[in-house]
Design brief:
The complex is a heterotrimer. By secondary structure, chain A is mainly α. Chain A is built from 7 helices and no strands. The chains are: A mainly alpha, B alpha+beta, C mainly alpha.
Amino acid sequence: MSQSAQLLHEPWPDRPRETEGYVFAMWIFLATEVLFFGALMAFYTVNRWAHPAAVTQAAAHTDFWFGTINTAILLTSSLTIATADRALEHGLPRLARLALWLTLAFGLGFLVTKGFEYRKDLEDHLWPSAAFALHGAGARPFWGFYWIATAVHAVHVTIGLGLIGRLIILSQRRMLRPRQASMTVTTLYWHFVDVVWVVLYALLYLVGRP
Amino acid sequence: MNAFYLPQASTQAHAEDRIFLTLLILSGVVLLLVLALVIGFSIRYRAGSKARRGPLPAWISHEVEIGWTVATFFLFLFLFWWTISAQLRLQIPPANAFEIHVVAKQWMWKVQQPSGVREINTLHAPAGIPVKLVMTSQDVIHSFAVPAFRLKQDVLPGRYTEMTFQATQPGTYQLFCDQYCGLDHSAMIGKVVILSAADYAHWIAAQPEGDSLAAQGEAIFVSSGCGGCHGQGAAVHAPPLEGLYGSDVPLAGGGFVHADEGFLRDAILQPRKNVPAGYEPVMPSFQGVLSEDQLVPLIAYIKSLKAKP
Amino acid sequence: MRDIETPQAAPQTPEPAKPSYLADGHTVASWIFTTDHKRIAILYALSITVFFFIGGAAATLIRIQLFTPHNTFLTAGQYNRLFTLHGVVMVWFFLVPSIPTTLGNFLLPLMIGAKDVALPKINLLSWWLYLGGAALTIVCLVCGGVDTGWTFYTPYSTLYSNSCVLAAAAGVFVVGFSSILTGVNFIATTHMLRAPGMTWFRLPLFVWAIYATSIVMVLATPVLAMSLLLVMVERVFSIPVFDPRFGGDPLLFQHLFWFYSHPAVYIMVLPAMGVISEVIASEARRRVFGYQAMVYAMVSIAIIGFMVWGHHMFVSGQSPFASVVFSFLSFIVAVPSAIKVFNWTATLYRGQIRFAAPMLYALGFLGLFTVGGLTGLFLAVVPIDVAVHDTYFIVAHFHYIMVGGTVSAFFAGLHYWWPKITGRLYSEWWAKFAAISMFLGFNFTFFPQFILGYLGMPRRYHQYPDQFQIWNVLSSSGAVVLAVAYLLPLAYLTWSLFAGRRANANPWDATGLEWTTASPPPRANFETRPRVTSAPYDYHDPDVGPTQPNQPPRQTQAAE
């Protein structure tokens, strides 16, 4: 009791309320994120509406296997972080730590795979500037969307990895307790990053394929 | 042009001014009412005045609040209905309006009359008949604004926008660029010269002899090699252009598209955007090959090709 | 007398046992790394004051240039950079943060009986992000400024402008995140930290206003951030997003931009409405007329405000059918604003009205906001908008809303809560003088611009045809009065910090939790956690009118 009172931060009357507050704030922040990516989706939608054929053709040049492998990696990482959250709640800190390490590894794996994919895309002249490989109005904006959306998403993944790294450090120092707000908040954020990827996967990798 | 008066030189100006004046009177009444109440209450109920306070009278209650909300709502609804129906009436483009092309660039207005006459920063047009401006920009967004007509329309790169006016009295009116377009935005001004139909015909006749817009377009059609595929007896299977303008073109992907100026423009610059049914997408893009100034006569030429009986 | 909202019935002691938040640490670090919402409010107040005068200086140069039609005082390039600077600075570095981050930060926890905002560290981060954005804007200035207009329209901003677009857009991008985090923080605070008994319908209208504003901030600002990111990407990497040559759509930028920037008008004006509700109720000594209607009006403004952006694009080439819908919705969003004006007016009825400085500013707001709102109706009408779009009519209209409305309300609030924030009283005479000069100077400056706009003078013109001169001379002359009026508070409020008489806890005899604690409040805001037992604005028994208030309104420091 005295310990939890000690850990209570300034404006909060009690700890459950504090946790609830942080989680609530994260939900609000995710609403912001939805609109942030929403504006990007508006760009995609307008381009595809104006140039349906060109976009379908351009989308056929994305690398299906890199995209699919990355989707699998990220979905699995959502499973591991959910495991970490539950494990912590049920008083299994070692399992939680293991699951966090796994999530970190999957996240890094995602970024590395993405890097290889970027290299291949550049070799194929899919950077939409002077030496762009595809023709037709709408192809460049599509690939513009590809680079912008995946880069912005990768920044989100990196931030998520930072948050997970922080949780691992807390857990090594045995400062991660059940019903810890930072655990739930990080889990929410990571799931969101995952959901965004699933949408991007459909828009980028599945559109140009029968 | 003086500091206190703006001429009403188009049918649109008359319609707009009627609405403006009505709204001005209405908002003047509302403003005076609010000010009278605020000032009246401020004097009557200043602290320590002898006015009776007590509870609010019984008739001031929830109902009053609902009452003025509903009243405001219906007033606004009426204003919306009245003004938008006026607008929609003005917006219906009259059939066979007199067509003039405008190409904007930083920082000038280039005008191409249907007779082929070119002007810079000046637009001559006849009074009394609807005139349709078909406009595009070579660089950034501009806005073609004629205060005396109470009209303006943004002019965008990469597409045509239209503005229709019917001038009511001959005269010279100011033309402004109203959309900020860079360094010399404020110098992108010109004039619109409205002439009576007879004077306009005289003015055209007095210009140096030249080809009409469509004839200029035909020359571009030939020099750009369009006829190699679209001409008669061409080896390539390309859609015929006669009677194309104004028709509904079936698309390879299904559906139809109405062949207006924007369609012709896209078909030349982005041939893969709308591929007609029954044809291969083999046409090269003329993006960067033809300038906006060349597109205008070329499209005028294609429009002039009537279907063979 | 009435309104005992703390469990202890005793009125507050003038000297609190704990030091005030101002005395709680005197080092620079104790300020710039503080997590105290009150100190952060002060940090913001100082920052936005700097930007207010930077933006004001730009406006002054603009008005000097426009004094004569073919003036060469400024070159076209300088003029374009100055009006862009004026817009960017005034919108994003002054108006958007003005009331929420200063008065909102200071008062939100006090008004709901909390010790601080929900996320104090994030609150500090918001201010640092604001500084980051400010630094980028300064970089932009040093690099020679930006000339796109505050609207950053493509393709001019992405392909044609030869100015420092990148730093300016990045500055606004960063300050956008400051705005978002502030919004998240305020929403969480309002939901989670209300004192016992502070139900939703007991919240003061200022809290409702800040809450509605925060929702708009959280949902609109990310769209601005993304649209500016796209501008930056297209400009730096030549990736076509808005470039029509490769199939991009320049109008998409306008849609995204106005999807933020129209709600942003409500980010600026909703907090102003909150301030005015507080001041008018306190000065008229009456309950706010139609409290619930006021709440619903604010929330519906926040929601409908998201659906009217297309009225900025009636002449842009968007579909005429879209214009019909947006015109309709623009009329609808005007209804709740009209209701609020009626309710403020009705609040005066049967009051005991005092005319202290905050009330003069508030009455000024009422008049100017009404004019701004009514001319807004003109612009919702498609044929009128087609005629006056991008002319000085628009300039006058939005200055009536944002300067006549928001800035007047900001000053009303600043004067009203100044004794609470600083513990000092300012010179009432000078404050009244400034309020009246501001009102007159404002009308003198901006009313001629309505006429200019109707006559067709386009905005953003460096030089203009001769026939517009007389109205420009009037406007520029008015600007002199306005500039002096804005400098006055800087002088007398600063003076009051050192030589003003000390204020007691409740100099206006007002209701509301913020007046139940010391002036200035202690670090933890309240000695004990307040408990709320009554509705707000409990100025009088509903069955009896208000009794005569203490005159003069502000009691000086009660004797020890």
